[in-house]
Amino acid sequence: MELEKEAFKKMFPKLAQELGSGENEVSVNSVRTDNEAGERHVTRETFVHYVPDVIDFIRRCDTQEQAEQIIDYVEKRGEIDGVYAQKLKMQLKEKGVRSFGAKKEGDYYLKRGEL
Question: Tens of pLDDT along 11-25?
Answer without folding.
Answer: 888 888 888 887 766
